[in-house]
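New to this. Help decode both lines:
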Amino acid sequence: MFDQVPEITHGIHPAILSARGLSPALRGLGRRSAVPVELDLRTGQRLPQHVEVAAYYAVSEALANAAKHAHASVVHFELDTPDTVVRLAIRDDGIGGADPAGGSGLTGPSDRIEALGTLEVISPAGAAPRWSSRSRCSQDLKPLALSA
């Protein structure tokens, strides 16, 4: 039974992500994070579901890594959606030294983002790590419907 859990939960996403989109979902992650989060969310559009899901889980895993491995005191996320490109940048003030090729906690986020676009991780030992990704949406972005 336990070996089926990943398969069962694969299609389950936080309700806020499905209902309201990536920006509100990232704000929620930030509020619940063990590490203080600074958000710079410059999008007024809903993204395709597969992009929102990949970005959400990549950010979630990055927060867990910052708290567990990097000993960061703050994490900064930037999300921007010029035209049909989604740019996500993540940086923290942690100790660095993460190596995606070494089977570290960066494997999950790397796989998620690289399925959609490019991911660059810069994490020299003793210096603040930075991630940046660029993904092209396969469809036009939709304006975000704001509720009062």
